[in-house]
Structure prediction request, 316 residues.
Amino acid sequence: MSSTNATELERTLLRSGDDIYRLALLLCGDEAGAAQALIKAIRRLATSGAAPDQPALIAALLQALPPERRRWRLRRPPAWARSRAVPAGRAALLAALAALPRAQRFALGLTMLRSFESAEDAALLGDENRGGPGAAGESGLANGSERAGADQTRAVVRDALLALAPIAIPTISPAALDSAGAPEDCRLTRAAIALNDPAIHNDATIRGHLALCSACRAAEHAWQSLSIAVEEALRGALRDTRLPPALVDQLQAAIQPAPAAAGWALLSSPRARIALVALPYRLFGVAARRGAASTHWQRPSPGAGPRAARSCPARA
Prediction:
């Protein structure tokens, strides 16, 4: 990694390190898992050559996560969800939030902790949101692949909120959140409300329907109240969380390239590599000349007999 990219990655870590650590805690559940995933993400990004910005770091964090274990939800809530600072009324909500599938926790973390737009969420979620139902077909408002991806991300958030609704606001009416069971004239509007679709404010037909339908306005208020309750609980639980100093040192060390060994540094020189290639041939030539010299005998004089020939020493 170049010194420029290393500096940019350090700046990204300085600006967004606490936020990304909170996201890692939300995805991993405990401090050890979050730290391990962050270190792997930093190393992956430092060697990938990608732009070391915040979305790239979050994408590297996703790739560094271990496979999700289905039995994880049977364990007790993580430390951040059962802190003493958590109000008693939010403890059950945070425990339910921590037990959500990883894709839903990630979507909630992006939208409520980092306030990403749905299109940015879709790019980061990737295959994580493939399990959710296709919201583009439900709302009838999709007009392209980018819009479909954004709607699909909103569907992941919607499904998470629906799962948390009985705990977040026990008095909320299930009918107010059920877009599929709404009257036919209200379904398009209710689907847009459930997805928090921008069409609520941009589409004239939906705005006109909301102005005339009190039931749809009540549904909109119910969804807003639910979203606010979950966001306040999540932000309140992770607001004071910071990167531990020891982890900061580990991440800074992971950004820096490892020093090359002396032997490999020698091979970085082209002349050294050429000399190493030619070395076996030179050694073979020296060995061949020495072998020839050791088997060479002096030619005896014409008057010498066989004994003289046999006693003639070999040249050194």
About this structure: The CA atoms of residues 154 and 196 lie 7 Å apart.
